[in-house]
Design brief:
5% strand, Amino acid/polyamine transporter I
Length: 499
């Protein structure tokens, strides 16, 4: 791959905004409300979870604007952390992005694309009927069957990741065009679903019933992962309710994540000191509004409370058990609008959504590894640009690792791990605003963090509280997240220039 002299600034405000919104919207908004509803048990608290997640995300985006205007360089958040806290902390962030945060999400979104493609083409599914190759199968000492299979859906996931990687190898403008087309399509489709859902729902009394006792948590549910049996309790309050709210946010925060990806491609955005802060604000605001309105549409069509009975109808299963074990709230809601064709309509919508989401993740992630390589903290070839002006080797390395994660079968766990790790690094990054204000008071700041110091401080407090809730409620997942970060310590000393 022939190298060019430097990154080309070819993307404008619309391109950057589409990257923010498109990277945020994947399949989460159509699925995770079921888990949130099971955890908090009422319409009021369901909306509060989404509103708090949106407010937290928007506050972080507004705060990042100051850092982006100070350091309009490729690598974004990695560069901000390096300037405020040094190369070790920034490497640990980049390491976690490469091993889990970016590639794990790319793998998970790729698998989601395959799962919904299987609705239209069953041959590319992830069931026992779609095993292409069985690597091993045995019964362990506890009598549990342990097997490793390669499914047709995993092969499709890797193929999509490979396709989008190749598209982005031929220039940032190609990737941006794909991003704009698919983001525009899914924004319009999601908006149409919201409008139709509210319009149809208002003809009945489901919304009124859901809000008749909006703050009574009713019945909440959790599942024993060993037996698959559902357990319930009634009436959360006090600390228990606070813990439930914090735990429930892991789904909504994951659905709102990846907004920071636009900072990774700062080196290719025109007038980045103005356009990156604006795109962060516009993109996160658009998605936050759509997410809240989508949940209003769900509440207009479906009761919050439901039964885990797989034989129950759509209304009986409610939001809590929409489509029973698949949590496809969007599909369940669309069924009440479009009838039996809803399954196909929603499958196509989520395929468009996940395809566009993965394009944005693939496009942006490689720029961070490019910045790390130029700091001599990653593989040297990742710091080279191909003849189309993009970090070709960084794209290829990212694609290979994300593809392997598709086959690992652990992408679901990785998502849980990376949400906690992402929050930790968001806290560190926003703390960097305070550090740099004190250390570099005279540094040019074309844009200053909105509401400083109160809003950035409020974000740090809120995100820390959510992390504490996750540590208490999902201890092992959070511990493994920290282990992944810690493994980066010896790797840092391997890459660090000697002498």
């Amino acid at each position: 791959m022939e190298e060019t002299k430097g990154l080309q600034r070819r993307l404008g405000l619309v391109d950057a905004t589409m990257l923010v919104a498109g990277s945020m919207i994947g399949s989460g908004i159509f699925i995770v409300s079921a888990d949130i509803a099971r955890t908090v048990g009422s319409a009021g608290w369901l909306l509060v979870v989404w509103l708090i997640s949106g407010a937290v995300t928007l506050t972080a985006a507004l705060s990042y604007g100051e850092l982006a205007s100070m350091m309009p360089d490729a690598g974004g958040q990695y560069v901000y952390i390096r300037r405020a806290f040094g190369s070790l902390t920034s490497f640990l962030y980049g390491w976690t992005v490469f091993t889990v945060i970016q590639t794990g999400v790319i793998a998970a979104v790729g698998v989601a694309f395959a799962k919904f493609t299987a609705v239209l083409i069953p041959e590319v599914g992830m069931s026992a009927d779609n095993i292409v190759w069985q690597l091993w199968s045995y019964t362990n000492e506890k009598g549990k069957l342990v097997e490793m299979n390669i499914y047709a859906g995993q092969i499709l996931s890797v193929a999509v990741i490979a396709l989008l990687t190749v598209v982005n190898l031929f220039g940032v403008k190609n990737g941006s065009i794909v991003q704009t087309v698919f983001t525009s399509a899914k924004l319009l489709a999601l908006l149409a679903l919201i409008v139709l859902g509210i319009a149809v729902g208002m003809k009945g009394d489901t919304l009124t019933q859901n809000f008749a006792d909006a703050w009574n948590t009713g019945t909440t549910w959790w599942q024993d992962t060993n037996t698959g049996i559902w357990h319930s309790q009634t009436g959360l309050a006090g600390w228990g309710l606070g813990l439930a709210l914090g735990s429930a946010m892991i789904g909504s925060l994951f659905s709102s994540d990846a907004w920071n990806n636009v900072t990774f491609i700062a080196g290719e955005i025109k007038d980045p000191k103005r356009n990156i802060p604006r795109s962060l604000f516009l993109g996160t605001l658009i998605v936050t509004l759509l997410y809240v309105l989508a949940n209003v549409a769900y509440l207009a069509l479906l009761p919050v409370q439901g039964t885990p009975d797989p034989g129950a109808g759509v209304m009986e299963q409610g939001i809590q058990f929409a489509s029973y074990d698949t949590d496809r709230v969007g599909t369940a809601a669309a069924t009440l609008i479009f009838g039996s064709t809803a399954i196909v309509i929603m499958a196509v919508l989520i395929m468009i959504s996940t395809f566009g989401c993965n394009n944005g993740l693939i496009l942006a992630g490689a720029r961070l590894y490019y910045a790390m390589a130029n700091d001599k903290l990653f593989f040297k070839k990742a710091g080279k640009l191909n003849r189309f002006g993009v970090p070709g080797w960084a794209l290829i390395l990212q694609g290979i690792w994300a593809g392997l994660l598709c086959f690992s079968g652990t992408y679901g766990d990785l998502i849980t791990y990376c949400t906690f790790a992402s929050l930790i690094f968001y806290i560190i990054t926003i703390a960097g605003i305070f550090v740099l204000r004190k250390r570099e008071p005279d540094a040019p700041r074309p844009y200053k963090a909105f509401g400083y110091p109160w809003l950035p401080a409020l974000y740090i407090v809120a995100a820390t509280a959510i992390c504490v809730c996750l540590l208490i409620d999902r201890t092992m997942n959070c511990v493994w997240s920290l282990v992944i970060v810690a493994v980066g310590l010896p790797v840092y000393f391997f890459f660090r220039p000697k002498g």
